Each structure stands twice: as C-alpha cells, then as structure tokens.
Amino acid sequence: MVGIRLLVTGAGGFCGLHACRYFARQGFDVVGVLRTTDDPRAVVLRRVGAAVEGCELTDRHEVERLIARVRPDWILHLAGLSSAGPSWREPAKYMEANVMAAVYLLEAARREKGRDFRFAAAGSMLRFDWPAAGGAPRPPHPYSLSKTLLTAVVRSWHHLYGTAAVVAEPANLIGPGSSMGLPALIAAHIRALRRARLVGAPDPAPFRLSSLVERRDYVDVRDAVKAYALLLERGEPGGVYPIASGRQRTLGEVAAAYERAAGFRVEWSVGDSDAPSPRPADPSALNALGWRPEIPFALSVADTLDDDAGSVAWFMRPGGN
Q1: pLDDT averaged over the chain?
Q2: Which domains does the chain have, with CATH numbers?
C-alpha cells in the first residue's frame, strides 16, 4: 500500500527477507532492521527494495531512537531466538530477545505515535497454556516460556493501551531462502547428494530422521508473509492467529516428497523417536479473514531444491522469483 511505512525486524532472516521483498513489491515503504547496517544481508534487503536500519533490539534506548527515526505505521516483529535446545543454556538471553525486545518496540511506538500504528509479532505454536489461577506454570523449555510471555505482552498492550497488536503463530515454514528448518536441511542434503553423484564422489552419510511417523504442519514462507500482511491490515487487535494449512504430514511423507522432487532414491537413517506430534493448529480465524495457503507442498519442496534456494542468492537473481 503506497504511503504506509512498514518496519520489519528480523529482516535478514528466512521469513524477514521474504516479507521485505513482498511488501516492497506491494508499494509499501519498507524499512528492514538488522543488528548492524554492515551486515552482508543489507545488500540483499536493498536489492529487494527495502531501506535498512541497524538496531540492537534488546537495548531500549536504541529501539527508542529507531522508532523516532522511522516513525512506522506498521511494525512486523519477526526478530527473536527460535531454537528450543539452546534456550536451556541461556534462558535470560531468550527472555531478552523474545520478550523484552517486543516490550521496547511496543512502548517506543506507543510513546511516539499513540495508537496510530499496527503491530504483528511472530509467536510460536510451542507456547504452553498458562494454568488456571493458583496453578504452577510448566513450560517444556525456556523457549516455550519466552514465546508464551511474548504472546501475553502483545495481547496485554492491546488490553492496557488499546494498541492494535496481534500475534501470529506460524507452522513449520518451507520454501527458498536461508532456513535451518527440517525441509531446508533435507534439501541441503539432497543438493549435496546431487553434487557428489555428478563428480563420482561418495554419497554423504544418510540423513537422520527422528522417526517416520511424527507429524508436522507445513506452510510456504511466501504464503505466511501474505498472512502477516492480512493480519496487519485486518487482524482483530489482541488476537492470536495460527498460520497453518490445517493438514499435518508425517516425516515419512516429507521424505517421500523430497525423493519425488529430486528424482532419485535417498537413503535415510530413521530413529525410533516416540515424541508426540504437536496438536493440529486451527487456521479458521485466519481463514475467516480470507487467507488460504496457495502454494502446493510439492512446489514448496521443489523450490527448496533450487541451487540457490539455501542462501540469500535466491533473492539476488535478476527479476526474482
């Protein structure tokens, strides 16, 4: 939308680059936030049509100066830490990155613009349900706690101050770009297999899958970005919106889809994990706003196998895709 200034945090990440690219193409005045402007990804952001600002989001004063400079109409807050495992070792770092950064952004924008801005934050389907009054919280890990508190912060800013803020909870994202998700790791393995076979080198060690029966919901990152756009424009303030297809696939189905796209058999090392699959997400609230995933899973898989798909090089090609 021409005339709307959008601030995107986490702009150099997997979803952030896609978001900056999409919104710039829609005519938004996009400002992407990196920790520093000499980050190599700044070149990519400018290539896709975004201006670049540097900011340490866990520094309240830096955030205040950022908001005063940019004065955004909309804020898409994608920055944060997203791996559960390391959160056990550095819980305070996760609280700073996933909770306090959102507090600083919301409060700086509120003080600068009152209620004249809209805010959407990337939450997580790994948040836990807070217990009833008197019950002790039982988060599965510090990451889950940080995302649960993030959701509480965003919803509370709406309740306390009338801020037009929502939380989106994306499913597992798939698609071209620099990602550390399972689809990207499988795609990187298959690209390595392809290169090895072209030169007659030995195959890499088989890719390790925890099991074939665990289930996950996958959404193409480009569809997720369109969901964020819809939520910023029309999401009900204070709402929490899962971004999901509504269909879960087993890891065995995912592996088979990659074999079909690659055109050759892949050897897998399969564990016997009996870890429970996440409960299916209900995308009905987002569907009610008119969103549906458009990119077929098979196309998402094929796109991750593109030679440039595992890096920012995909965004640098003439004309883009």
Answers
A1: 94
A2: 5-170 (3.40.50.720), 172-218+245-280+294-321 (3.90.25.10)
